[in-house]
Fold Cullin family profile domain-containing protein.
Amino acid sequence: MMHESASKRGSYHESPIREANTISTSSLYHLFNNEKNPKYQKMIAELHEFFNFTLSETISVTDIKELECDNEKVATFRRIMPRMLNNCRELTQRKTYISFNLGLNGNDEKQKKFQLLHQHQIVLSFQEFCDELTKLIVNSHVLDFLTKCDYSFEIISKHWTSFYNRFRYAMGALGPIISYVPVNYPMIRKELGFEDLTVFEYYDFKLFDCINSYLKKEFTALVTASVHHYIHMFPITNVMLEKEVPMLRIMSNCNFSVDNMSPKDFYMKTLKNYSNEESNLEPRLETFKNFKMLLTRNALLASLFFPDWVSDANDLFINHLLLNKKSISEYIEIAKNTYDEDKQRYIKTETFFSLSMFKNAFEARNMLELFKEFCDEAISEKLRAAYGFNHDTEKLFDEVIQLANIDHLKIYSDSIEYHLCDLLGSTSKAIEQYVKYFESCLFKLVKKMKIKKSDYSRDMKMKYLNDNLPILRLKFVNLPTFPNFFERSIFRKTILQSDQNSPFIKDILPVYKDGLIELFKERIVTNVSREDEIQYRDQYQPYKSQFFQVTEVMADLRIKYASFLSFYENIEAAVKFGKEYNENNNNLFFPLIFDRERIPKGFQQPNNELKNNFILPQEMDDAWNKFLCNYHKNKVENSDTSMKELCPMWNLHHCEVESTYVIPDGCSLTFELTLFQTCVLILFNECDHLTLQVIAERTNLAHKDLLPILKSFLNYKILIKDNNNTYCINENFKPDLKKVKNGKLRVVLPRNTSMQSSNTGDSRSSSAHHEGSNYQWTQELLRACITRSIKSERDGLSYDHLFETVKRQIKGFSVGEFKDALAELLRDKFITKDESTDTYKY
């Protein structure tokens, strides 16, 4: 029966069978029986035919179930196997002699002797016989499979499992024979190559060795394609994969290297290349949204190849999507783009993902410092790109507001603040620029409401305003000095734009208070008990500690906030007074009366004795005297002002002077000047040419005060100066229209003098346009430096040591300024003084 089956199928795959037949019965006989024993000859021939029979019965099968369910074939294999195993036993236990020549005898004849062959050699020879026949079957299966697939890697990968199952069936049919020696002669397993591999793993190795010999350099591409075959399966489930037998799993079991790499290393390399090239795994919103699903799928695939690879494969996946600066930067950018125009707010992306996932991934690997470094670098790059070479502060704060608003868990807010202050020079300058940015946005919103949302109710307008205000959620908002910057800005704008027809007075000032309430309300916990406050603070301590301070500091912040509201009310009262006076007297003179304690310190002047009064033009002097008369009369009638003294601050007075120059819209250009600039310019209405000495005599101003004023006019080319040091009006004056706003041109004093103090209080003897002083900015810088210095020393610093530390960092301040800054920090409880050690601590 065996002979018949073999001959019937002999023509199916001629090449391998013909190659197998080259090992004829006589040659096999010669190999295993030099004595030409017919018994062994027959056994060898039967084994040979059984290998051919197994090949012919398995190579043409397309579905392994066809073989497994063919009871007749199964029965045939079972019936033949005992006889084959008996042949194996007989052939490995036979006695065989080999001849060798001793030399020549006296008759010149060779003498032959026979020596019994050691059984070890007989067993190895038998195993070599079985191994050669098995390799022929392996080669036949591989060649048939590659030919049917037309050497297409895609088709090979698709049908690989079916092929391998058929191959394993063939090896299983031969299993008792090819494993006979390794099982029954364990002492020689190492020589046979089965020390670390089972017999079937050994022939799996030979299978890939054979495929490699056919494909040569293309073998690596085939294995890569087989990996991609599973990676691109979608959807993918355990049920789909449970019957799959991927190449890499077999290679891993039999230790077959791919491109000089272990199967695991090759898989990790392939997976890494795929992750870097696959667009679906780029840092995108959908990728992060489906992160857990993708991670699960990644683990499922790794377990398909080898369960022990799951951890490393997931690490690689997490490295690609989480543990790098690019992904962190991209995720922050994604969050910036989740702004909902309809709802006018950012979508909280942490409902399905969060930057905290990045943080947790780094923290789990003890790489939290690297995470902070990556966040810091990403924020730095974004802010520097926004600031640009042209130092665009508006674009910078647009970026800062976006970054801060999407950082719901306050993961990188410290980096935002640090780099913002670094770009702008200091914390004080950053706050100052933010105030300008906030006001600019507020002005635009109010203008937009007037044009597009005029039909809104007041509540609707306030809601629109609050929803769109650029709220800055950074730590320095909690500084008790933070409202001071707004106080100075509001005060400055009030005195500069104190005209009932100006947009500031009519539109901006009425909504300023409500706008700033929105700005401050998030950092002030009000109307709650101490217990509730502590509970609320502790609940969010891990993420939002910067918004909640100890009770004492919270109390100081509330006091400061109340002080700000009181300041604003004083502004409102002053503007109201100015409007009423202007309406009742039909005069262009718009007076503003403030409580001295409500005027920011940077604008206040000491009350020195009146010295060398400067000379006001007659019309202005009349208006001033008329106002004084009205005010003193009002003091008697109004009890609220009866106890107040009026102290004019000439350095803060501003005037609008109409010129003869006509701008493109047909109106006359108006100059915005200080009072002292106005007094000088009006003199040229009477005289075309004036010397410095004449101007000084007619205004009673000192030369040191006049020179900056005249320089300001020269800078704007309103005046010109001849060789005789005589000043005259420039008949060819043409303003820079870019600087003209609403028909007005503000003539700014030179920068190095614009902040000087007049030091004369009520006196008219100084022309310095004092809108603030260098003292204020020095104080802000000193406070920041003192706090930073003390914070870096855990044990605190003595006064002398602190002074020297600050002096090394900042130049140009006095001991008095240092003491003032130190006193303010102690008062605001940013630092404390340990009386026992006489040291300052944070």
In short: The mean pLDDT is 76. The CA atoms of residues 720 and 728 lie 6 Å apart. The first strand starts at residue 97 and ends at 104. Residues 551-585 form the longest helix (35 residues).
